[in-house]
Amino acid sequence: MPLAVFVLGLSVFALGTSEFMITGLLPGMAADLHVSIPDAGLLISAFAIGMVVGAPLLAIGTLRLPRRRTLLALLGVFAVAHVVGALAEGYALLFATRVIAAFACAGFWAVALATTIALVPAERRGRGMAVLVGGLTVANIAGVPAGTFLGQHAGWRTAFWAVTAVTLVAVAGVALLVPETTGGPLSLRGELRLYRRGRVWLALGVIALCQAMIFAAFSYLAPLLTETDGLPGEWVPGVLALFGVGALIGISAGGRLADRRPFATLYGCLALALAALLVLALTTDALVAVAAVLVFGVAAFGANPALNLRAFQAAGDAPTLVGASTTSAFNVGNTAGPWLGGVAIDAGFGFPSVAWTGIALGVATLAALTVAAVVQRGDDRELVTV
């Protein structure tokens, strides 16, 4: 595996830490900025929406630019946004920096995915994507807890400074170790033809549904475990870290399996995720629920390399825009899942309803994946006939 891919994974570690650490910083941020916790929570929504919108816009805007320089520019904007955010005295300015950081993060994801595809041999692309997304997994295991710890003991602004420092390390790594690549003679019209392919929309739909399945339950694991299963509250961080360990195991195995059999990998991960969700929906035993969380982490992130690989295979000659589109699709799921889980809770169905919501979304994912598999077989038969 090229060292450059690991450098890109380090960069994703910084981006992912920033994206998810806000959850643990909300009380301190709300108090410091004199806003309510729900208002502070909108900083999370601002980042997610910025990712959904920013990915395709920046992919189009940077289409003809050299990729390494583009990556460096986006990391630079991300770092500056965190410096300004750390110094912000008001909520409005901090909100604006979160949107700008999200745009830079989305653009980086799109270009980093395309760069990884360019650097890694075709037969190892699943493993390359696993390394890249592994940065996000490590962010959830180490970066987010560390950011939360810093925020709780030294103020939320310290966490922003820490992300800035890690981002600058990533800048140095990209500058020194990532070779310059381009997509060849790319054209905007050629890349936009991506959206005329039904296979691409199916691949993106599977990504969004799968992520919604994951985050419908994951977003509410803490109250589900404590209120329904009787888990002591002080155990929750450890269980979430266990989910991260499962995610690391899953993405390592999923990267290798995706290179050989992407559809089989997705079916296997979805079946495992549905089994874990069913246990979480039915059990009231804390130890059983904790075991299910570990399995859920393995399944949730084990699917990630295959989801990305399927989208790139469907896109063919539009690597930059498909990278942006997958980024948007993941964040559509990240946004829709927690909302649907919250709707179920607000409807009075209790915390186990988030697991049932995840199951419903998982069944929808299986249906969409089956349609995609049928379409793929039809396309393969046409190629053999020709």
Would you give an account of this structure?
The chain is mainly α and 386 residues long. The protein has helices spanning 3-33, 37-61, 67-87, 91-119, 125-154, 156-177, 188-192, 198-218, 221-228, 236-260, 262-282, 286-302, 304-315, 319-349, 353-385. α1 runs parallel beside α5 and α10 (236-260) packs parallel to α13. Residues 382-386 have low confidence and may be disordered.
Mean pLDDT: 83
Query: Structural class, judged by helices and strands?
Result: mainly alpha
Total number of helices: 15
Radius of gyration: 20 Å
Residue share in helix: over 70%
InterPro entries: MFS, MFS_dom, MFS_Efflux_Transporters, MFS_trans_sf
Organism: Amycolatopsis plumensis
Membrane topology: Multi-pass membrane protein
Main location: membrane
Describe the secondary-structure layout.
Blueprint: H1 3-33, H2 37-61, H3 67-87, H4 91-119, H5 125-154, H6 156-177, H7 188-192, H8 198-218, H9 221-228, H10 236-260, H11 262-282, H12 286-302, H13 304-315, H14 319-349, H15 353-385
Helix pairs in contact: 1-2, 1-4, 1-5, 1-6, 2-4, 2-14, 3-4, 3-6, 4-5, 4-14, 5-6, 5-10, 5-13, 8-13, 8-14, 8-15, 10-11, 10-12, 10-13, 11-12, 11-13, 11-15, 13-14, 14-15
